[in-house]
Structure formats: C-alpha cells, structure tokens
Write a structure and sequence with these properties.
This protein has a 4-stranded antiparallel β-sheet. By secondary structure, it is of the alpha+beta class. Strand 1 and strand 2 form a beta hairpin. Helices cover 22% and strands 41% of the residues. It contains 2 helices and 4 strands.
C-alpha cells in the first residue's frame, strides 16, 4: 500500500492544482518547497489543540506538479 501525506482537491483551474497536505508545527514542508523552488499559494490551515500535525490547503502551478510529488516523498 502506498501512503501519501497529501490529497488532490479536484477543482477546475487553468493554471493550478489544489492540494491538502499534512505538515508539522515546525512547517517542514516550507523548507522543502523553498529548496525545490516550488511556488506555493497557501490557503486555509487546520490544527487541533494539543496535536503536532496540521492540515494545510495550497495551490501549486501545473508545471510544478512533478516536483511537488517528489517533494512530498
């Protein structure tokens, strides 16, 4: 079974794919995106009191999709 820490939000857009991913309170994904030069537009963020993890909604450009997948590994 293949585990992922993101899901695709299916909405019609000419320029972007939308995702929801799981991150830690230290925002480790931000550093990975910066390192891989992915432009990310952040949306809503959901976190429950007393937990380490948060759900973050974002948009990425369609041309960055393969780099996004590699970054999420």
């Amino acid at each position: 079974m293949d585990y992922k820490n993101y899901i695709e939000i299916r909405k019609i857009s000419l320029l972007y794919y939308q995702y929801c991913f799981v991150d830690t309170g230290e925002y480790l994904a931000d550093g990975i995106f910066y390192q891989n030069r992915i432009t990310v537009r952040y949306g809503a963020e959901f976190v429950r009191e007393g937990t380490r993890y948060r759900f973050i909604f974002c948009k990425i450009r369609k041309k960055d999709r393969s780099i996004f997948f590699k970054s999420m590994e």
